[in-house]
Design brief:
binds succinic acid, alpha/beta, about 30% helix
Length: about 400
């Protein structure tokens, strides 16, 4: 039998859940197994995981003095519901409400007094840059509350690393903000959402997590939002590559081993006051035989993922720079620290020069100065795009933008 709290929540919020389902009718369904439409009849089956709640809830002694944590829900698989709960079948991401997700983890009450807020309820492929701005503004606002220890954002994993990085750059507080998702739906076999949420809330409630910036907490790992990446679509799929993780969530709670040292949080220069939309920045890929991307209407910036451009690509991006577009080059793997002097991307330029350089004094006059390209250093192209969007809210001078890439 469902607990009284679960009944109240499911009755009180059923209209919101159904509205979310209606809104999601055209939403893509999370891989690997696409579902058919989710109906209210299918939702009626949602209490399946909740059936195990009363016994767990009864064993929890809530801590009335625990820190307050606000859970802001945006959707994703962590709020995903299957047509056939308890199977390996497909599901619709962004279906359960914040309250329903919280109710399924009674153990949270041991560690935090949890408040909830529903920001959106969508698969994360629906999250837009405008939503990043609104979310960051909201988090900046609530973190002014003296009684709030930290914030947890529940989010789909497909676009989680981008939202987390945007928040890392724009939440100007030293309080912990933890972004969390799940790779298995809430109604699935062994869902990872509940344990991930518990770890995320424990981290957001912990004084040890202060001054660590925005973090991604999943699979017992605490990752800096700057480094976290979705490497694969199974549990354990989030990693930081060579950069290491900040800590772990052990049975006794969060344990930190490292802290980020680049600019973020209170030391961030990115103020979203007066910002509602972000400058348009495109992302392109360089490849053998490539000629580079041109546009009918130029964006403000372009990020090129490349390990070395062809001469034709170099020429295209040089022309874009000449016309005022800021071009950032990012190593395809994101694992590069060369560059950063504000000069041309060394490999393609050297290749272009050696292909055309005459060997006599009859060297042609140097080409007119072209604004330099910017090196993303150790950032993936998707994250470089986010930093460039923010940088362009302040300046379009590539040397100043290189300074920003050097510092964040
Ligand atoms: C999503 O990103 O919303 C769906 C996939 C997931 O959360 O794992």
């Amino acid at each position: 039998m469902p607990s009284l709290r679960a009944v109240r929540v499911s009755v009180g919020l059923s209209a919101l859940v159904l509205a979310a389902c209606a809104r999601q009718s055209a939403a893509p369904v999370a891989a690997p197994s696409p579902t058919g439409a989710t109906t209210s009849a299918a939702l009626a089956a949602v209490p399946a995981p909740a059936a195990t709640m009363p016994a767990r809830a009864a064993s929890v002694v809530p801590n009335p003095n625990a820190p307050k944590v606000l859970v802001i829900a945006t959707g994703g698989t962590i709020a995903g519901v299957q047509n056939a709960p308890g199977t390996l079948g497909g599901y619709r991401a962004g279906t359960l409400t914040a309250e329903q997700i919280i109710s399924s983890v009674p153990e949270l009450a041991r560690y935090a007094r949890v408040e909830t807020e529903q920001f959106s309820n969508v698969a994360s492929t629906f999250v837009t840059p405008e939503m990043w701005v609104q979310l960051a503004k909201r988090i900046n606002e609530v973190l002014q509350r003296g009684d709030l220890a930290g914030v947890v954002v529940t989010h789909g994993t497909d676009r989680l690393e981008e939202t987390a990085f945007f928040l890392y750059l724009t939440v100007r507080s030293n309080k912990p903000v933890v972004v969390v998702g799940a790779q298995r739906p809430a109604t699935g076999i062994s869902p990872d959402g509940p344990i991930n949420l518990l770890s995320a809330v424990r981290t957001a409630a912990s004084p040890k997590a202060v001054q660590k910036g925005v973090m991604v907490v999943m699979d017992d790992r605490i990752l800096s939002a700057r480094e976290s990446r979705k490497l694969y679509q199974r549990t354990g799929g989030f990693s930081t590559g060579d950069m290491g993780m900040l800590g772990v969530v052990a049975s006794q709670g969060p344990e930190f081993f490292f802290a980020p040292v680049r600019r973020f949080g209170e030391r961030s220069e990115f103020d979203l006051d007066g910002v509602d939309t972000l400058p348009k920045v495109e992302l392109t890929m360089s490849y053998p035989g490539g000629t580079g991307q041109t546009f009918t209407t130029n964006p403000k910036g372009v990020v090129v993922a490349t390990t070395g451009m062809t001469a034709a690509e170099s020429a295209t991006y040089r022309a874009l720079r000449q016309s005022g577009v800021v071009v950032v080059t990012s190593f395809t793997s994101g694992e590069n620290v060369n560059g950063g002097d504000g000069g041309d991307f060394p490999m393609p330029q050297a290749a272009a020069n050696s292909a055309t350089r005459p060997d006599s004094a009859a060297r042609p006059a140097p080409a007119p100065a072209v604004p330099p390209s910017v090196s993303a250093l150790h950032l993936t192209a998707t994250k470089a795009r986010i930093l460039l969007m923010l940088a362009l809210t302040k300046t379009n001078n590539p040397r100043e933008i290189q300074r920003i890439f050097n510092e964040y």
